[in-house]
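Hey,

Quick one before I head out. I ran the complex with adenosine-5'-diphosphate overnight. Inputs first:
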Amino acid sequence: MRIAILSAKPDLYSTQRLLEAVHSRGHEGIVVNHLNCQVMIEGGRPSVLYEGRELDPLDAIVPRIGASVTDYGCAVVRQFEMMNVFTTAKSQAITRSRNKLRSLQVLSKAGVGLPKTVFANHPKNGDITQLIQLVGGPPVVIKLLEGTQGIGVVLAETNKAAKSTIEAFYGLKKHVLVQEFIAEAQGADLRAFVVGGRVVGAMKRQGVEGEFRSNLHRGGNAVAIQLTPAEEQTAIDAARALGLKVAGVDMLSSERGPLVLEVNSSPGLGGIEKATGADIASEIVIYIEEKIKADESDMVGV
Ligand code: ADP
């Protein structure tokens, strides 16, 4: 097979590991920088130009689209979909997962456990206190809708702090989510790596002393863990609800069971492979092989 890793950063650990896994399983692998792709539109013949010339046919793509280039990256992924190239993440699923609110809405309908969350416009008569009360009162977590890597996630311990933080974001014309604070998570979260409806690795990330955010980018550290059956099921359900075949599902442990924070469509391989020792990159390639084989056998007798 000929498999392309769509990545703007060929030197990244995740890109390199995927390429290595593609090669080690006997396939042809290339890194294609989606930012250098052009989408060619003409009746009946969708194609992708790469660095000025038409890309040789591909069997599959593994999109690794950064948050800052979601729109362009997804346009390229969509074009490959139009060309019937198999993708480990559909463009629509990537777009959906990139919006925290949209994801939470979809997950809520699917019955996945979530922290109580409210989204509202700046109240006309200024009753921000009511928003804070809707999620049970302080402490609350206030999240910028488009934040990543823990930036734009604020813990407000008092009503005053919550009110002024929300006002500050509204003043900057930013939309925010106000969420109940899950104190019993104790600054740790769980990341389950789901491939093709199966958890292939899981880790617990712990924030540095005094930090409620466990993001590795904020200095947190990670250890491998065995998920409980409820955690495993929640991660699988969350990935399925968002239509993601490869997903990093972030959860908090709470008194009422696992609660999903976010589902990542381009989850990094570095943290999870180092923590678990598992070969997650090969799991992704094996999943592609199985899907393509299944599609081929579907064609028999057509
Ligand atoms: P980002 O997408 O920027 O990583 P998250 O919503 O995942 O934002 O939040 C970052 C971190 O903050 C989480 O990994 C978790 O450790 C902590 N956190 C987020 N929301 C809550 C919450 N409601 N209660 C407790 N801790 C939280």
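The mean pLDDT is 93.

Talk tomorrow,
K.
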